[in-house]
Amino acid sequence: MATISGVSFTIAFFIVFELSDIYNRKRKAAHGEEMEKFRLDTRDDLSFGSCGVRPGNVLVAVRNPNRLQHLARILLKTDTRKMDIVVLSVRQVTQAGSGEHPLDTDQLFSEAETNVFSHVVTLGEKAGKHVELMVVPGTDPYEAVVQTAARLRSSRIVMGLSPKLTPPEQGALVGAFWEQLPEPRPSLSLEIVLENEKDVVFFNLGPHPPRLWPEDVALAHKLWLELSGMGPGSKLHHRDVIGVALRRMNDEFHSSRKEEVVGDVLRELGNGHSEDHGINGATAK
Predict the structure, then answer these.
(1) Whether 70 and 23 share a structural domain
(2) What is the DSSP secondary-structure string of 229-265?
(3) Number of domains in the chain
């Protein structure tokens, strides 16, 4: 009798749970997903100090609540005890809407921002990590992201792949806005996470050590050997060879031999090396 009673009670309990689950799912479908409630803290002076984030933070740009694979990757890879994660949404405005008067909170933080940040909070809670949420107005989302990263002294910008641009085009666009920043420009990198969360394209923004192909290194070494035996000896370094080559190219490019230099560069691109050369301040690594 005890066994029969226990089994009957278990079956009845299971049925109640199943019915409750079905009811809650139907209720959720009927009313839609529940949105988070956010308390807004507006600031006129945007900086890492005023926002309470540490320099060297990671800035993750979000727009579509259904395309947050790049944020999921960063949450998995980042130790938030050592590095802050700032999740940024750009509220796109027209030139007329970005005039002298600041936007009201309702204009800056609409239902779209509530929706995307609700998904962001859910991902953060699942990962057990804290993220800073931020909304800024901007006429161009890429420009606003770069400017915000500079103000927050971020070390890296993370984006998902644009549905309209290839990774090199997206990197070139971000690099172009980096070039427009006032001097001194901060050291920044761009990380574009593809749809599967595993493939990532990295770009270094602005001046950085180039990635040389093996044949480039071999040629520099060959020239170094030949030049070393002509007087400089041990005082000559590989960097000296590269430096002279760059300065001579710069001189020829700004002379009557400009077309010849451009032709050489185009032939180099035709050799399949284009993915590792600078494009408007952004270089794939």
Answers:
(1) no
(2) TTTTGGG--HHHHHHHHHHHHHHHHTSTTHHHHHHHH
(3) 3
